[in-house]
Amino acid sequence: MESKDDVRFENVNEDLLVSNIKRHLMSRDDKIKLEAVQFLLIYLEFKTSGNDDTSQNVCDRFIEADIVEYLGEAMATQDSILLREILKCLEFFLNSEKFSTQIRAAYVVECMQRTLYFLFKQSQKELSTANDALRLLAVFIEEFNKNLTLKQLFGNNANISQVLSLVMSILKNKEELGDEIIINASLVLYSLFSQSDPALTNCDFLREVPDVIQKSLASLALLCNTKDFERICAKIIALMAKIGSGALRYAIMVLSCHIFC
Fold first, then answer.
1. Domain span at residue 123?
2. pLDDT digits 0-9 by tens, 76-94
């Protein structure tokens, strides 16, 4: 028996769908944008519920139509519901290799940074959305790092430093922000140091790193003493091991920096 979505999407003209979604995303009304994003999300969920090839092909078609760029522009909003729906859509596009091209990946990371700075300036009620965005930024950086260098992804060391500053700011306010945000901030840190990247060998940039790594490890260690220890213990220990591994790579880069700078 066909579901409602089967009937609803059976003869969809994707060119017309893309055109309508773009038009709605350009609206000044966040409610109209939200309707477009939610419809896109339902369509993506329906179309990607089959085999992997179908999933990638659908994502490819939307990416080639520049939907990612339109979603990125729509992220400049104060509507947390709209923002969360956009984040869900962007996560779907990780199914496509076309999502990881240099220009597109750099644009997405830039939008995520901008959004996170805005969210952490807002009231406590936005922390859930900020946490989702932070987790997704870590996922994006780690995924994009498979094909791109940090320089390609961030453009310059100043942008990487901004991410480190954001992580440090979160870790300094760990009592107010909660355990999950501390873990996701540390995941962002790990994603930056998950491989030895030439962009990290800039001597001025390296001087900023020790305090951030120390703060991250110290914050994670404190979480092991909380009442939720059993629930998050395995996750924290695994993350501390990852950051420790990244710190070792960092130490090697620092040594090289002192030798050659």
1. 101-261
2. 998 989 999 999 999 988 8
